[in-house]
Fold each of these.
Amino acid sequence: MDPISNMITTIKNALSSKKEKGAVPYSKIKLEIAKILKQEGFIADYKYKDKVIEIELKYKGDKPYITEIKRISKPGCRIYAKNKKIPVVLRGLGVIIISTPKGLMTGSDAKKKGLGGELICKIW
């Protein structure tokens, strides 16, 4: 099983059923993804308690802020990019999350720091 894909599926299912929150089991990488989603304004908040990460989803009227979230690199097929080859999502309107030697960060932050790494997911 892929825990990141499970987190993405949980978020998608919560958004499609217009729920306020989605809960996923704790792991360090999922907590870092939740931090980036909050930092970029895709979710309202997240809370970690009792080995569970509660993700509070964000809506504008009845439309969610997250239009789409897709996993890029999978356990069976890892995808890496050098700093100059990190893709841009929807001409800069979306965000790509990348795992670098310095931790998880957005693609734009990785380019600024001159880092490459594994492409985790893209959100718009």
Amino acid sequence: MPPLDFHVDGNDIEIVSEWPHLGHIISSHCLDDADIFHRRNCMVRQINSVLCYFGKLPSSVKLKLLYAYFSSLYGCELWDLWNNNIDTVLPGGKL
């Protein structure tokens, strides 16, 4: 089938297979892989940021900061729990 053309105010609407929405990656194939990898990369970036900027603080403070970042996997409840990529986010795939 030829692709459909949609227009809004005379501008073409691009048809894509993935699109970011509210901090998550929505896939046209209804797969969670891109969103899982995106959330994992965000979490790693946050952890590295905490360790870089607060590296000289006591371990107890860093642990509280890391806990705050680790507990922010908003939206992971929607992931397919049989997806093998969940293991890349947390060891053992435990959410």
Amino acid sequence: MSEDSDGSIVDLLRNAMELNVKLASAIERMRAPAEFGRSVMDDGSCYDLGETAKMLSPKLEAETGVGLGRNRLAEALRNMGVFMQDNEPYQPYLYHFRIVLKPTPVGMKKVPLFTGEGLSWVLPKLVEYYR
């Protein structure tokens, strides 16, 4: 082997080691959202915005320092392009919600409820949004 090929092998190994460190860091950052997602993914329950905010707030605050309430969650989802102005999810995101009709004094209102899978989907999005 020539001296040039030894240098390029060393460079490749160094780059691989740097990539490995970055990947390990990314895996560690996603550990909490993944554990949370695993716990709620298949429970069959649905959660309104207030319940969702209460469940996600401690994890989001631990990751970003930002607390979450119902109004802040709805605002973030609108800003991220998930919700329309009336807090109804856009078509591509319907998979993460169950829409129910609630009676109001003036008629019926569509209310989005997060599915368990929707909770595990939205947590990393919120972490990214608030970082």
Amino acid sequence: MTYLRLLWIAGAIVLAGCAGRAVAPSMFLLDIAAPTPGAQTKPGDAPALVIDRVKVAPYLDEAGIVYQTALHRVVLARNNRWASPLATQLTGALQATLENTVDNASIRRSGSNNPGAALHLVTHVDEFMGHYDGHAHIGGRWQLIDADGRRVADSHFEQRVALSDDGYDALVDSLSRGWQRSAQTLGQRLTRLLAER
């Protein structure tokens, strides 16, 4: 009887230990465009274009991935998180795509050794989430600011990318593709703007 009781207690402890373990969160990174051959070769007189850190809406500035579940409700995932701050990932992916797209400017990150005459790209992201309509929603605005602080150009951007499957892997894939498309469109616009200056 004592042996069975000890066996039962040991089994209960093992089960309690398993039930008490926290599930490790899944961590996600956005895709970053690989440099294309010759993307770094810029004309010697190419203007400097400084990519300021992307600003995200306060509700997106969290570790968890955001999903809109109803017209007026968004949820923050507890176990599906960004592996590094979302603003950092968006900035890195934007810079990489612009380096591949804009061939008439020297692309630099804010905080590096930037000349005083540099143009600054300021980007705000207001939407970057899954949506109950089965799409990844991406939206925001950008501004191109000259060395005197004057706005040279600005525009809104918006992308809706269908999810290929259920789950956060598919969501992050769609968010990555949507962000890259937004950055490519922006790069084409910047190329035209810089050519006119």
